[in-house]
Write a structure and sequence with these properties.
47% helix, 282 residues, Rossmann fold, five-stranded parallel beta sheet, alpha/beta, 9 strands
Amino acid sequence: MFFKPENEQPTGAFKLRGAWTAVARLDAAARSRGVITYSSGNHGQAVAFAAQRIGVRAVIVMPETAPRPKVEGVRRWGGEVLFAGTTSEDRYRRAMELVADEGLTAIPPYDHPDIIAGQGTVGLEIVADLLDVAHVVVPVGGGGLAAGVTTAVLALRADVTVTAVEPEGAAALQAALREGKPTRLERTASIADGLLPLSVGTITFRHLASRVTSVVVSDAAIAEATVWLHRVAGVPAEPSGAVTTAALLSGAVRPTGPTVLVVSGGNVDSDVVESLAGGLKP
């Protein structure tokens, strides 16, 4: 078993890969107008980080319930924070208003070719670093990371199994796989706050359909895995990044060869971890 610790990125999560790719590919006119995104936190931090270093204004629309470390992270990297509702649709509507009013360029959190390409570098590194990899386990929310990793890994190693993991309360990929197309859930809820889109993306689903196995894990399993990663493995993962470990510890994933668990991020308050530990059954 191996970890791919994306929590060690400068912004604490894999999102920097896609955000940097998307912002860096903008033309001069788009850069001069600035960029905007709608994010629960990690993508927002990544866009702010990339924009600051490339010299672009960045506006980040976040949910009113965004975790404090993620809000502080966006501001640390120079992003302008606006709050809008509690759902991804609330954030999206507000961002599109500003695109129309101010001419900002939207940098979507997952459903965009540049974002998927950037996230796919996780898969390239896995194959390069672990030559005999047999199984890759990756979190899925909107699907940008899962789509990029799946595409990159299978392009180089068609024999590798890729498993996408999502919370029981936000199983948008499983709904899409059942229907054969992205399907909007009525609501999503989980302690894995970065994995709560109401639907996977249209582009990301094309990369995932018929190419991945899909499993779900309970919030109880996610909490246990988050605490285990912090206290035993020494990996400071947030709940969204711990879902892959939850899939292993709960038995939802049963590896048969060298397996990589992608730890997608580590932006979590220590108080949250202590709270999760306090709620575990003895």
